[in-house]
Amino acid sequence: MERVMAEYIWIDGHKPTAKLRSKTKVLDNKIEDVSDLPDWGFDGSSTQQAEGHFSDCLLKPVYFLKDPIRGGNNILVMCEVFNSDGSVHTSNKRAALREIAEKYKDEDAWFGIEQEYTFFDGVKPLGWPDNGFPAPQGGYYCGVGSDEVYGREIVEHHMKACLFAGINISGINAEVMPGQWEFQVGPCGPLDVSDQLWIARWLLYRIGEEYGVSATLDPKPVKGDWNGAGAHTNFSTKEMRDAGGLQAIEEACKRLGKKHKEHIAVYGSNNEERLTGLHETCSIDEFRYGNSDRGASIRIPMQTYTDGCGYLEDRRPSANMDPYAVCTALMDTICNKVPAEV
Ligand code: ADP
Ligand code: MN
Ligand code: MN
Ligand code: MN
Asked: What pTM value is reported for the model?
């Protein structure tokens, strides 16, 4: 017998933006397969997932990774939430993604998500003066030096933790607003990218505890002439990645244009504060796609044009989006080959 600590992580019913919750279960054996993990429960009345008089919700483990905080054979476990009668809980957006991922599995969809976020030190962004503002934006993006970037130690710690866990993190960078950063997860399939992004967010908050710094996914943490925070979602199918794929990418853009409102509805709350048409965004009321255009809703990267195949970047999702919902919407719109017009 080897006792291991399993951190059961789930997404709550908080509105308009769901939050992460977790608690620890001590198990009697090292876990080799997700099916070895027992179901568990929690008090849904404390997470906006149930009424007080009938409050038990079910946690079903669906994915696990090595725990970089506790090390050893300890693990982080992603769970789906079910009602006590076994039906899918309304807060459980992963269930729909599971279905659509299975339906379109032959498309071999890949996602790469760029998670932007902002560190806060109490009530102000990390590194900002107690009164007033730092120098205007311009020198901070991918900057270096203690007068340009704030929180690098935490960022490095987080990236190493993601690598140890086995998250497919593909990079990090300092962002346009001081105290703002980005990490990317992918490319990988819809369930992997979403589970890993949620766990990477959990690690960011958890590691922040050790520095007394919080991270927020607020799409517009500082009003005014400061960049918001998004979660650009890069997408491709096998057809798009293969020679001549540019045509499939352009068709996908046209389909997305017909469903703009439906997508915006699941691309994160308060996104209208960020998608203003300024600060490298397209207005929330418009839909445009274009070659290398960072002011468009969808950007087709220059390399994709050059190669005639590759991927598209949906720049609309906000930092606080739910990747389960965004990946579901993208697959539903793009992989459904029934002509969109009829
Ligand atoms: P940007 O130039 O917009 O800042 P990044 O380098 O931050 O782009 O992020 C691009 C993301 O797209 C990465 O996560 C990368 O892994 C992912 N990506 C690369 N190729 C593909 C592809 N064919 N399909 C989906 N995602 C991809
Ligand atoms: Mn990026
Ligand atoms: Mn960015
Ligand atoms: Mn981008």
From this structure: 0.97
